[in-house]
Amino acid sequence: xxxxxxxxxxxxxxxxxxxxxxxxxxxxxxxxxxxxxxxxxxxxxxxxxxxxxxxxxxxxxxxxxxxxxxxxxxxxxxxxxxxxxxxxxxxxxxxxxxxxxxxxxxxxxxxxxxxxxxxxxxxxxxxxxxxxxxxxxxxxxxxxxxxxxxxxxxxxxxxxxxxxxxxxxxxxxxxxxxxxxxxxxxxxxxxxxxxxxxxxxxxxxxxxxxxxxxxxxxxxxxxxxxxxxxxxxxxxxxxxxxxxxxxxxxxxxxxxxxxxxxxxxxxxxxxxxxxxxxxxxxxxxxxxxxxxxxxxxxxxxxxxxxxxxxxxxxxxxxxxxxxxxxxxxxxxxxxxxxxxxxxxxxxxxxxxxxxxxxxxxxxxxxxxxxxxxxxxxxxxxxxxxxxxxxxxxxxxxxxxxxxxxxxxxxxxxxxxxxxxxxxxxxxxxxxxxxxxxxxxxxxxxxxxxxxxxxxxxxxxxxxxxxxxxxxxxxxxxxxxxxxxxxxxxxxxxxxxxxxxxxxxxxxxxxxxxxxxxxxxxxxxxxxxxxxxxxxxxxxxxxxxxxxxxxxxxxxxxxxxxxxxxxxxxxxxxxxxxxxxxxxxxxxxxxxxxxxxxxxxxxxxxxxxxxxxxxxxxxxxxxxxxxxxxxxxxxxxxxxxxxxxxxxxxxxxxxxxxxxxxxxxxxxxxxxxxxxxxxxxxxxxxxxxxxxxxxxxxxxxxxxxxxxxxxxxxxxxxxxxxxxxxxxxxxxxxxxxxxxxxxxxxxxxxxxxxxxxxxxxxxxxxxxxxxxxxxxxxxxxxxxxxxxxxxxxxxxxxxxxxxxxxxxxxxxxxxxxxxxxxxxxxxxxxxxxxxxxxxxxxxxxxxxxxxxxxxxxxxxxxxxxxxxxxxxxxxxxxxxxxxxxxxxxxxxxxxxxxxxxxxxxxxxxxxxxxxxxxxxxxxxxxxxxxxxxxxxxxxxxxxxxxxxxxxxxxxxxxxxxxxxxxxxxxxxxxxxxxxxxxx
Length: 982
Hints:
Layout: H1 2-14, E1 32-41, E2 51-56, E3 62-66, E4 72-79, E5 81-88, E6 95-102, E7 107-114, E8 127-129, E9 139-144, H2 145-149, H3 157-161, E10 167-169, E11 178-180, E12 189-192, E13 195-196, E14 214-222, E15 235-240, E16 248-256, E17 267-268, E18 274-276, E19 282-297, E20 301-308, E21 310-318, E22 323-329, E23 333-343, E24 346-354, E25 357-367, E26 370-381, E27 384-395, E28 398-410, E29 412-415, E30 423-426, E31 433-434, E32 445-463, E33 468-487, E34 493-499, E35 521-548, E36 553-567, E37 573-590, E38 597-608, H4 612-619, E39 623-639, E40 642-652, E41 657-661, H5 667-670, E42 678-690, E43 695-708, E44 711-714, H6 716-723, E45 732-735, E46 741-746, E47 753-758, H7 760-763, E48 770-784, E49 787-800, E50 832-833, E51 840-849, E52 854-863, E53 887-889, E54 895-897, E55 909-923, E56 926-935, E57 943-946, E58 965-968, E59 973-981
Parallel strand pairs: 1-7, 12-15, 30-34
Antiparallel strand pairs: 1-4, 2-3, 2-5, 5-6, 7-8, 9-14, 10-11, 12-13, 14-15, 16-19, 16-59, 17-18, 19-20, 19-21, 20-23, 21-22, 22-25, 23-24, 24-27, 25-26, 26-29, 27-28, 28-32, 30-31, 32-33, 33-35, 34-35, 35-36, 35-39, 36-37, 37-38, 38-42, 39-40, 39-41, 42-43, 43-48, 44-45, 46-47, 48-49, 49-50, ...
């Protein structure tokens, strides 16, 4: 049996592990990996005090330790790459194991069998590297640039994440982001060389780094250890390239020509009218980079540097063909990586990069059949980033890692016509006819803002004995957000025009009055500014014991303590939550003791911080006032070259609706003083085994339950019922839906505030719920005999009454402050299948080397559709101030509830991507790689998003857009690339 095991594991060393389902139970890292193992004699007796020397084949980095009394050793915190492991012991021949691969968070297990000096060498004596890590209970995928080069894959992190089981692409309006395990796309964490680069403003996105700058990726889909936190979705770790003892120069060029790109079909209304014109969309993209790397001092100091100019242009036509946008961005990227081997057991690494980018969006209007330029809006993103990391192996059993970094991101939107034009939205005839003057809804709400994260981490690992390895550490983030937001146009006013559904009775308005009888139209104005400087401090301590219970059973016992402190514009804490205890428990069993199969399980709790968007929106100097007027008509005015229907106003209807008066609100009146955190519990059980020398398979069941959430809720209905007066505006309090709330309340309407505790059932909100269940089945063939393949099927369901931090139903990016739970009536019928629910997902990818130089690749995905809704405006209990209900009004005035996700589903999405590459070795020192990728080869055009709003200006007023397709899957396009390496 052992002879067979040796043969299989030795093969595993000689091929690259293309796809990994799990990672070690030892404290996982987001930048490096480890080598561990045991040294035994030919009679399987442990060999203590043997000298283990590992050496990097790229940089000459060397570390030396000795085995313990059980013949075991562990060398943590190694940079990723290939190593040579040499074992020396008195009376034995040296044993050398070459090409031991260390991956992100990975643990290479090497067992060395020593032959006594002078003894005849047997063929079975050697080193074994386990094909399956039977100590692991985590779920992840590790993939390198070399693996990706074989596949047809867009050059972005989301495409890497989507290779992993249980991930799906989120709503396209949020950007190009993935949903992990049913969570919203705003609940993930992203790291580059240990630096957290996640957008902490609203969780959407991360720093934008060229794909060629990366060396390796790790995608954690569940069961990750106590070192990781602040995520209820997934974690993506990336490590950039670094210099070696060899000099390298090169350049990469990517071209996506519009001439080889198809357009999505046009979208039409049910009556045949054109809704969205996709036929005239154009997209051109050219990217290129140059890089250099090598030794500054051989075996000591190395550099890797990259510069990338880039230009992306896109033309699109919207709004029934009446508006056009042309966007362009051309800011360069630069990046520098330095590595210093200070001494044998001490290293220092430094990474700096800039992803500053300005996207200019030119807006045009169709005036008498020609496109008339209106304005330019500039979206400013990105910033300068750096991170430094020290790693020291202080003793054979104790290692320290210290990290400090800064991550910056601009979040400004400016327009060259913002002073000229207000946004006007006219709903009198159709759902949303926009007359913006500056021609784009992107222009109407502008911002000057930026975010900065300062991060410090201290991570330690102590091998106590051969049964216990203890990891512990401290994690600190100080995040600051600056924001000044305002509406465009004179007076900063945003106008809405409405029809009155029944002029004989009037329409109820959010300020508590009705339109006068006989009035047929009314206008709403909104003036809003918000801003300030805001800080959020997040701290964590963690400890994790990897306990080798027996030779075949490993337990991973982790505990994480988190603290979040969100501060308002005056620097005072407004949402502070301490003592969040997150257990992380994993177990793995090497069933047969041969390293070829394992049963594993994992239980964990994960907390999510309050997004700084909540600081900005809830605790800044916000002024937000709505006014309602009789609309006596409109007058056409030419503003910035566009004819705009400006309002002719009659009398104001009712009082001002003051949602915010411009001052920083008192903390105890806007936040539940007994606020609990948002958290999720996760349960995983799985099995993995080798089928043959090349094939492995695995099955895994996962359940995730959101057991606590934070959102803003109105309480004015409770105030009216309890104290007998009606507040002049909605009163929002940040709290836990369905739970008791302790808050300061004006009990008289005259400013007499009193701290009260409101029972959860008295407010009428349900508890936040989200449950994700899945079964993943995977078959993987590692690279051998010139081909590799991975096949994964996932059955899953995601249901509840909240998607999470953001809301796909209306593309709301207000993390933690979405429309959910704003009014009790909005949650009636909210239980059901959520937007990221995909019942079936199939992912197949692989590559085949036709010849030594010519490789073809494929990436195939099949995914069932997204649940659809039928949103209305009213309800049997009345009309909410705003928002979408799950009720629609019938012809007889009664209402029908259309619960979440019961209006059908979008189309199944089928996608086949193919690639072909040719590696031309011109000389020993010059390689040229030519590659062509064809995405969506069969040009499938599934409808991935539909208009879900059944009613428009009032209950029973049918919306002609309902059911129309608002987005199709990305149509076929071709990308060419050329890489030159010296």
